[in-house]
Amino acid sequence: QSALLEAMQERQVTVEGRTFVLPAPFHVIATANPIEYEGTYPLPEAQLDRFLLRVGFGYPDREEEVDVLRRRVARRQEAVALEPVLRADALLRVQRAVEEVEVEDTLAGYCVDLAAATRRRPQVLVGASPRGALGLMLVARAHAVLRRRDYVTPEDVKAVAIAALGHRLTLKPEMWMRRVAPEDVVREVLRDVPAPPTVRPGGYQRRGQGGQVRPGGPSPSGPQRPGSPAPDGPPQPWSAPSGRTHPPGPESR
User: Fold this and answer.
1) CA pair distance 232, 114, nearest whole angstrom
2) What is the pTM of this model?
3) How far is the CA of 95 from the CAs of 23, 141, 151, 164, 171, in angstroms?
4) Number of helices (H), then strands (E), in the chain
5) pLDDT tens, 126-141?
6) How many Å apart are CA 12 and CA 51, to the nearest integer?
7) With contact defined as beta carbons under 8 Å apart, do 70 and 62 qualify?
């Protein structure tokens, strides 16, 4: 586990006294079976806190599962040939673009309020740490980039809160008997903590053509750059589709 922490936090590994710097981009992806734990050890809270997201996929629906079979027949072999969808240098540019996304103080406070609210819930033994608020803000900025915006809205924060905060909560033991999952607590927090109004960055301003700034006001979520396609409706929180159930516990980290 110390080697895993070294890779995740220091972006390097040490073998027999020799240190090797990990290449960029580098990601740590872990999977967990929510049913069987034999032969495995649960990760401590400090280590779980260093994972940026936990996303549960659940079972595919009928049409998706039929498509899996259809593609297997068309492939005519068991092995799957994967094609890259993004070059490493392009991914690094995307990561740099995320760092250019602006976050208003009200949105930063909203991320802190959500993380702090998890610590006060009666179902929770250990709530989200300050690293959770940082992770929530980072993922919200990435979500804004995917929506072709260079500023964060409350909808961005809400869309990623479950994935960014759920795995950071340790519930009281009796919650397992009540079938309460950490994701349920995050949903309650999203419902109870008021969100700030959506404004463009710069104190109720919006950018015009050529980078000029013109006065503006509160605006709904939408693309800021001219010519960008409009987002397809307000984003929804990331969670398993309805009808897919999972027992309480880790799904995929």
Assistant:
1) 26
2) 0.74
3) 15, 10, 15, 17, 33
4) 10, 6
5) 999 999 999 999 999 9
6) 16
7) no
